From TrEMBL:
The record marks S192 as: Important for substrate specificity. It comes from Eubacterium ventriosum. The keyword Acyltransferase applies. The active site is at C142 (acyl-thioester intermediate), H235 (proton acceptor), E237. Keywords: Acyltransferase, Amino-acid biosynthesis, Cytoplasm, Methionine biosynthesis, Transferase. This is Homoserine O-acetyltransferase. Pathway: Amino-acid biosynthesis; L-methionine biosynthesis via de novo pathway; O-acetyl-L-homoserine from L-homoserine: step 1/1. The lineage of its organism: Bacteria, Bacillati, Bacillota, Clostridia, Eubacteriales.
Amino acid sequence: MPIKVKQNLPARDILENENIFVMTDTRAMTQDIRPLKVLVLNLMPTKIVTETQILRKLSNTPLQIEVEFLQTVTYQSQHTDESHLNEFYKTFDDVKDDYYDGLVITGAPLDFVDYEDVDYWDEICEIMEWSKKHVHCTFHLCWGAFAGLYYHYGIRKRDRIPKLSGIYEHKLLNKKSPLFRGFDDVFYAPQSRATEVTREQILNEPELELMAESDIAGVTIVKSKDSRQLFVLCHLEYDADTLKLEYERDKAKGMNPEVPYNYFPDDDPTKEPVVNWRSAGQLLWTNWINYYVYQTTPYDIKEVENE
């Protein structure tokens, strides 16, 4: 939450230059507060796991956030009980006339599938187009980020073999950005994907800003310059055992996966992983909600349509 100070306090300018949100007493007297509305398009097969991971990140803020979950109708989940979906999920027809402060589009296990071959691609495109006039800021995650970069900017993914799996060191390219408030100069983050985009693709698009990258994992966080779109290719929301469970699943399928990089102590899968990304993950999601949603969304959410 912002700190409130007198209008002319000398420290105000210093703090604001450090990206610390300072609210003057004049503004505070006229401020109205309402709950933020966030919609989560959950494309993961393990929906309950993903729900929990995202809600955990959104919950660490004093702001009141109303979260709704969205499912596709052109593809029926095979891994989540239908009663759960019927009770807790909406369809696009249910929300198409509504407005939201934030939208999260999750990943999906579709690394080697062309976008146009995805069963629900047309529906995803309809939702992303709708978001331009009905959502203040969208957080695209992993496959959702690749899909968003392709739909909005025509940036194509390419295969990455072997699969990128493990914990990688990343560096900030814009340390003063509010998105990285509280971050160290480098941070660790889980990666789990077999696709990538290049830094040249991002830098060649004038409407995009490359925010964070890794010497090994490459492009990791991208933002539109108008701050309405955020594309995150890493998984700072992952639990301690998520990569372990993925590794064991792939082994059981006979896929002979590589041991996730820098994840198990001594690269020994019998040892419990040590989490070194949780604080960065919390900062990323909290900063998104605070600086890119709460601080800038219109009080009358329907005004999003005119932004």
